[in-house]
Predict the structure.
Amino acid sequence: MEPSLKQKLDLGNITLDNFLEAFDRVEAERLLYTLASLHDIGEEITSSEQPDIKSSMGSLLRMMMGTILCTKAAVLLYAKYKYALQSVVVKGMEGNFYLRLDPKELSLWSSITHPIALAEAEEKLPAFYKTHQEQLEQNGIQLLVPLIVKDNLVGCLLLGDKLDKQAYKSTDLILLAMIARQVSIDIYKFILMDDLKQTSDKLRKQKAELVEANMGVQKMSEISMKFISILDEKKLFHAILDEMLTSTAASKGLILKVDHAQDALSVMCHKNTEPFAQRTLLPYRQYEALAKTIESGEPHICMLDEGRIWQVESRYALFVPIHNKHSEEQTYVSYILAVFDKERRGGGFLTFNERDEAILLSYANYASILIENVRNYELATKDGLTQLYVRRFFDQRLVEQVEKANQFNRPFSLMIMDIDHFKHVNDTFGHGVGDQCIKLVASTIQRNIRTELDIPARYGGEEFTILMPEADGEKAWMVAERIRAAVESTDVSHLVTGRNITISVGVATYPQHGGHPKQLMEAADLALYRSKGAGRNRVSMADESL
């Protein structure tokens, strides 16, 4: 570098006189080329709605290297939240620069108004020089040109040797100072524009999220109105699963019950997967994300390495826990909501995102309340031994059914049945076996009726009733006969010896056998006693003669 440079020209205070003194005709042409190029680069940055700083700085480096005739150069931007200079464009060198700065030296950077040789940095920027000397020397860096705007560091230019291996001339340094000033302003404008764009994008995103959140509240309100009336656990789980798949665009899903005692899961419902055998317990420890969801109680998004989990072929999965309040101090994960393979528009699948996770968390929080409601309802309406409805519930539904039938003039039937010689079973084999026989008959009833419509109940000790809306006498008799035959043919040798379990049944139909609940129950009860009087193990209609 020319020793008389500072005497010839103060780069921090360029005047017309000292400017003309330093430049001859050739240098003036180089200056004009530099100024024109800087103008074009500035226009490129400020006129574009989405400026590409990398492309613009690439143009700058090409112009600068051609003007100064250097072999290598780099443009670095200052990342203020990282206290570091990061390279945007590097030419003539391999790799990138990430140069950490000492926050205490930032004011020293701002005070440098002209290009400095690397050796000068030892005095002017001691902490920076000590940290990065070796890396800069290995890359052949000769000059540092800080980019300063309003006493704020916005970046830095790094330059290597000149092509002729000569020292940088005073005119080179003047041009670099001019380039640095203009580029600093352009970068500062870019930063302002980028900050403005990010703020605008953030505001748009927040607006979209508010709109979506409002729609989500409306959606959850609609769902709550639909779900609140579902008082059957199986129906509830299926309804929740359908909404989960729709809301997340997932292609398949499961709701799983956690069996902490056996360290396994059971399937409550599934959709678009291969069938699951009833009462099958599924191990889960080998699936890390699923195990973490159960152990931590936090949702997890994952990619399934093997492309399959149990009977579900899938690449992407989202697991969300449903918490159950175990005591005032402790909660545990009682169920898992699982969705797989988010469908991409135009085909294919995507992984899930935070929005999908938030949606399923909303369902999980709401589902825990609904499940508790269903359980409380079942405790109040279901018999603990048989899981059939209790007598009080049956009586209420019968009154409602008579009112509905009167209004719409539609028939319905009911039947009363009890286990034949049940006292003998209790006395001979014990009450435990008697309970097993009651459960056997109850499960046979449930398998042979319309689960979505008919109302089975345990009416007394060994007595059962079934309300069958919109079923005439012939249809009711056929169902009763099917239940009777199924009970008779059931192997009960593991419970009792020397006999089968049988039932007797009486059937009554509205309006033929009565227009009032009490009349219908009495008609069915008389038909039941007619079956017993005729030898038991048979079905009788209320209008059969004695």
Observations:
- The chain is about 50% helix and 20% strand.
- The first helix runs from residue 5 to 8.
- Confidence is low (pLDDT under 50) at residues 1-9.
- The radius of gyration is 42 Å.
